[in-house]
Amino acid sequence: MSQPHIVVVGSGWAGFYLAEFLSTTTYRVTIVSPRRTSAYTPLLASAACGLFNFYLAEEPVRSKTRKCRFIKANVLDVEFGAKKVHCAPAFEDDDAVSNEEFDLEYDYLVLAPGCIPNTFNTPGVAENALFMKNVSDAMAVRKLLFDLLEKASLPNCPVERKRELLHVAIVGGGPTGVEITAELDDLAHKELQDLYPEVAQYLSISIYDVAPHILGAYDQKLHEYANAALLKRNIGIETNSRIEKVDRDALYIKDKGRVPYGMLMWVTGNKAVPLVAKLQVRKTEKGLVRILTDTHLRVFKSKGSDEIYDDVFALGDAADIDGASLPTTAEVAVQKAKYLVSFFNSRASSLVSEALPFTYMEKQLVSYIGSRDGIIAGRGDREGWTGRSAWLAWRSGSVMWTRSWRNRVVILLTWVVNWVFGKEIAKM
């Protein structure tokens, strides 16, 4: 008897966990994704700013210890009746190969295609902004930062031009935006002072957000604390800012006009991938478009229908539970993936309806705000707190996101070496 075939769409937090832990003695597992690696997104800002090497912030899907099959492709559509996924090879530099589309049959389908950055159709963003979704994005941030520092160091560069080149504009005041701000500010006040003593003083960082305050997921006391701490370190915070367009040198903000920048980072939120928009299944009707599932993560067939596909599951940022919405975080994705792995591995012979429903175990939200300071959200009757203990909780938590003990040890050793000798960021 042949093994049931599980096709997993996506290699993000959810998809990679399934690739790692689904039983390949019971199932044939195929991962379909345009990316051959899975990024540890909470580590990207740290890697971009030299806390450790880039390879530690991602994990390859292919591994000699991982017996699943990997196909580098985009899933274009799903024929639920025929139990097929329609795919196109994902090679942007080879149109001939990318046009050779193919189908894969499945017994079980897991949809975890993730999301893409939401530009809100702001003109110029896609062409001029940097994002922070994968290691190649983090590499682009570091390369551009050093290119700008070198340009500003040229003997014929006037002071006003230095200020423009070294203005880092970060659009998005959520945890990702604040954490990349914090890491860049630490770098500016330490290593860059030694490496670029003539121009480091001109580097400035500004956060722009359409909301009335940054870090809106935290209570008022905590986001006000973070706001004050950032302002104290001369980081610009421009809330209630509506960006009308972007060009290669400047932001154009309503009621404020033209704001020059050297680097623009866009970390404002998520948008559904084309596959989610195309699928004929029930989806959310407000905000981010996500596939709706029941509490067992099974996909509803169509809008207004309570029928589900017993063999199709969805999780990660691209999916949500009907009536029990959860945020698009790595923690939610991993907990759902653990639930699905448990279902497939230990209850493969039972009906899905006999399994316990998924229950999310909320963990405290932690953010780094720079200078070894952080904030941790309260939970229940316990209030949140700030300070070095919060920073240590964030830093230790970021280590535990990696699934490899080897990577954890290397990260810890790198931190020790950085603490003793300083970062060798100019060599990375």
Description of the molecule:
The strands form 7 sheets. This protein has an 8-stranded mixed sheet. Strands 12-11-10-16 form a 4-stranded parallel sheet. Strands 13-14-15 form a 3-stranded antiparallel sheet, with no helix packed on it. The radius of gyration is 23 Å and the shape is globular. The model has no long low-confidence stretch (mean pLDDT 92). The chain contains 13 helices and 24 strands. The protein has 428 residues and is α/β, with parallel strands linked by helices. Helices cover 31% and strands 25% of the residues.
Short structural summary:
The chain is of the alpha/beta class. The protein is 31% helix and 25% strand.
Index terms:
428 residues, alpha/beta, eight-stranded mixed β-sheet, 13 helices, 24 strands, 31% helix, 25% strand
Number of helices: 13
Assembly category: single chain
The overall average pLDDT, rounded, is: 92
DSSP E strands, number:
24
Globular, elongated, flat, extended or rod-shaped: what is the shape?
globular
Question: Looking across the biggest beta sheet, what order are the strands in?
Answer: 7-6-5-2-1-8-20-19
Strand content: 15-25%
Uncertain runs with pLDDT below 50, 5 residues or more? none
Report helical residue fraction: 25-40%
- Tell me the Rg in angstroms: 23 Å
Classify the secondary structure makeup into a structural class.
alpha/beta
Question: What does the main sheet amount to?
Answer: 8 strands, mixed
N→C terminal distance: 51 Å
